[in-house]
Amino acid sequence: MILAFTGNRFLADETLRDTLAARGLNPRELPRLSGEDVTSEQLRPHLSPGLFGDGGVIVDLEGIKPDKALLELLAAAEVTVAVLDESPPATRVKQYEKAGQIVPSPAPSKPGDVTGWVVQRARKQKLALERDAASYLAEVFGADLAGIASEMTKLALLDGPFTREAVQRVVGREPPGDSFAMLGAATAGRAAEAVMQLRRLLLSGEDPFKLMGAVVWQYSLVARTVALLQEEGRVNEAAAAQRLGVKPYPAKKALEVARKLNEAKIRAHLGRILEADLAMKRGLDPAVTLERLIVQLSV
Asked: Residue 273 CA to chain centroid, in angstroms?
């Protein structure tokens, strides 16, 4: 039968190995074909059982579009065929369902979901990882689950418990900057934190002019949110998103910033942003101009 492992490649490959092991098959001992080797000629010798009963083969379809004949060959195999197929089209999904079973491995995408995944993985590994440390790994690596797993393997060789600071010393990476966090810190008067976020964004390769564009867009959204709060008083995230025509996340962040401002302050901030934008376009150092602006917004 075919066992098709879909979804996040790292998770799907990991699930494949665990599933085969549970069936009494050692994935390290099974032939694994990928790339140009995935042909009927190369696969056929591996699709019949050996002297000791059921065998198996692992077929990696990354970058490959198997034709109908090859899939029919796999479906007719007398051994377990484990197929790694990250995002199969609907037609292939139907073939997998007809010939065997699909084992999906959806990946966490939102930062909170990635943090939850790290926490669960740490529990399975009996790793004394604090939730704040799990959040740090999610911030640094984002959706790179393989990178997170690699760092957790390193941590398992050390003595815990693992706080955020301890994990940060091992990993040695700063979290990427967050433009909304930068503006939130600025409007709260935390200039040092706001500048730190800006410098992280610049160090991660963000273009200063694109960052200025983000500041302009975000403060325009904040200004509209300030007006909305003045009109209607208390507004929740869902209502703000609907009224402003944006997704819930930017609406939530805009609300957090807007609640610290009033019309006079937002007008002053917009004036400073306009001056900084013009200064950058006239040739002044963009990084220095942005940093000066962030400090001004913190006053």
From this structure: 31
Residue identified by tokens 């807007």 is 258
Q: Decide: 187 and 257 in contact? Cβ < 8 Å.
A: yes
Residue environment code for 120-156, b if the CB has 16+ CB neighbours within 10 A, otherwise e: ebbeeeebebbeebbbbbbbbbebebebbbebbeebe
Q: Residue holding tokens 């990427």? A: 176
pTM: 0.59
Q: Give the model confidence (pLDDT) of 34-62 as tens digits.
A: 999 999 999 998 988 865 556 789 999 99
CA angle 106, 107, 110 (to 5 degrees): 130
> Between vectors from CA 209 to CA 208 and to CA 212, what angle results, nearest 5°?
90
The two structure tokens encoding residue 9: 């490649």
Beta bridge partners of 58: 32, 82
